[in-house]
Write a structure and sequence with these properties.
By secondary structure, the chain is α/β, with parallel strands linked by helices. It folds into 3 domains: 18-105, no CATH class; 109-342 and 555-567, Glycogen Phosphorylase B (Rossmann fold), CATH 3.40.50; 357-548, Glycogen Phosphorylase B (Rossmann fold, 3-Layer(aba) Sandwich). Helix content is 38%, strand content 16%. The chain contains 22 helices and 20 strands. It has a 7-stranded parallel β-sheet with strand order 10-9-8-11-12-13-14, sandwiched between helices. The chain has a 6-stranded parallel β-sheet with strand order 17-16-15-18-19-20, sandwiched between helices. The longest helix is centred in the last third of the chain and has 21 residues, at 530-550. The radius of gyration is 27 Å and the shape is globular. It is an enzyme of class 2 (transferase). InterPro entries: Glyco_transf_N, UDP_glucos_trans, UDP_glycos_trans_CS. It comes from Setaria viridis.
Length: 569
Amino acid sequence: MPASPSLPVSPCTFLVRFVKVDRYGLVIPLDHAPPIFCLSITPSDPVRHFRWTHEPQVVSTNAVVRVCIYSPPVHKSSTPLEPEAHLQHYTAHTRSELPLTSPMTVEALESVAVVAVPFPAQGHLNQLLHLSLLLASRGLPVHYAAPPPHVRQARERVHGWDPGALSSIEFHDLNVPEYDSPAPDPAAPSPFPNHLMPMFEAFTAAARAPLGALLARLSTTYRRVAVVFDRLNAFAATEAARLANGEAFGLQCVAMSYNIGWLDPGHRLLRDHDLQFLPVDACMSKEFVDFVLRMELDEQVAPVAGVVMNTCRVLEGEFIDVVAASPQFQGQRLFGVGPLNPLLDADARKPGQARHECLEWLDTQPPASVLYVSFGTTSCFRAEQIAELAAALKGSNQRFIWVLRDADRADIFADSGENRHAKFLSEFTKETEGTGMVITGWAPQLEILAHGATAAFMSHCGWNSTMESLSHGKPVLAWPMHSDQPWDSELLCKYLKAGLLVRPWEKHGETIPAEAIQKVIEEAMLSDSDSGMAVRERAKELGKALRASVADGGSSRKDLDDFIGYITR
C-alpha cells in the first residue's frame, strides 16, 4: 500500500463529494483533484479508507479498505460489500469540519495489533511469549495478556533472548478472582497435575471479561486486532469475533501430529509408521479431558482464521498435510513457524551478562560429556523413583546436571514450604561431587542444551522441551509422564529416530529400577554404542535442518513471513 499522508481523522469529519453510493456499498468520489481517500462502509466494519493512485481498475474489497475509526451510526446504516468493486473514478476531497477528540495520524490507524493470550501453564506461557517476541522483533505492536502471577512467571522465566527484548512487548494483567493453589502430590495415583485444575477453571471462567475489555479498547486504535490464543483458550476467539476488526488465530502448543491421533487413533499414517496413540483418558485426568472437550466446542463455534504451529515441515511435514486436509481445519490457514525458541550458539558468550553457575560448570567439562536431566514443570517423582534415578546416575559414571524439583503450583510465587528433597540431596551431592550438579530451582534449559558440553537430554518429552532439544541437536532419553508426552516420545523414538525410550508407557505406574535407567544412560552416552551413536547423529542432522528451516529460504521463515503478511494485509 502506498504511504498515506499524516492527516488527522475522526468520526463525522469526512466531507466527500460523490456521484453515488453503488451497490457494493462504496462511496464513489466525483472529482479528479489530488487524490486522498476513498471511503468504504460495511455492516460489520468501521469506516474504512484507502488511498487511490490509479484508474480504472477492479479492486478486491479485502484489499480496498483500512480501518479508520469505530463509528456505531455508520455500522447501523451500512450495506455489505461484494467481493470486487469496479471503480472508474475514485479520488476525493476530504477536510475536517469538527474538532477531533482523539487525533490520530493515518499511519497510526493503519497499524495492526497482536494480542497474545496464553494458557497459564509454563510450557504454554513460554511458547506464546517466544512467538510474541518474534513478532515484536519484526516491528508489530504486541500485547501479552494473562493473570498477574502468570505475566510475572512468563517474564521471569523467559530465556534465550537479550535482556531488553521484553521491553518490546506491552504486558496486560487479566485480573481473575483468587483460586486454590495447592501443592502437588507426589504420591497421587496419576502423574497428571490435577492440582492445577482449580486455576485452569477459574482462568477460563473469569478472564473473558477483562480480555474483552482490552480487545475493545485496542480495536478503537488499530485497524486490525489479531488475537493469537493458545488453543486451550478458545474463549479468546469468541471475544475476537465480537470486534468488527478482530481476527483470531490459534497457537498449537503440542505436536501437530497429535491432532491426528486425537481425531483418529487408527489413522493410516500412524499405522504406516507403526505409531501408537494412547487413549487420552490413559494420559490425562477425566477432569482435564472434559475441560479440553469444552474448549474444543468453543473453538468450533467461534471463527478462527488460522493456526500457528510450533513445528515445521522438517519434523512433521506429512502430518501437517493430513491435518490441513481434515474437515476440522477447513478454511483455516496453517503456519508452521517452529521452532519458536531462540537457537543459541554453543560457544556464545555475552560480556557482562550474569550466567547461572551450572553454565560455568559446563564450561569446565569435555565436549559432549554431560547428560542433562529434567522432567519439566508439571511432574513429580515419588521418593522411591528419585532414589532409583539417583543410583542410576551415580552408577553410570557419567557427568550430569539434574534438575530436581516438584511440579509448579498454580501460583509459583506462593510459599512452597520445606524442600522435601533436602535430606536426600545432602548425601547425594557429596557422593557425586565433581561428576554432577543438582539444581533445585529454575534452570536455564536453553543455554544448557545449547552448550557444547551437553550430550543428551533425559526428558519428560513435553513438546516445548522436545523442540528445544532437537533444535540444538541433542538426542532425548524419553521418559513421558502424562498428557501429550507419550505421543511425543513415540514420535521421537520411532518416527524421528532421535530418542531412546527409558520407560515404556505400559510401565508408567511402576518404579523403574536403577539398572534399567543406567542401561539407557550408557547406551546414549558411551561412544561404543551403535544405537547411541545413531540417535546422536540423527539429532545433529535434525538440529541443522531446524536451523535451516528458520533461516532465509526455510519453510518456517516463509510461514512466519506469510503469517505476518496475512495479518497486516
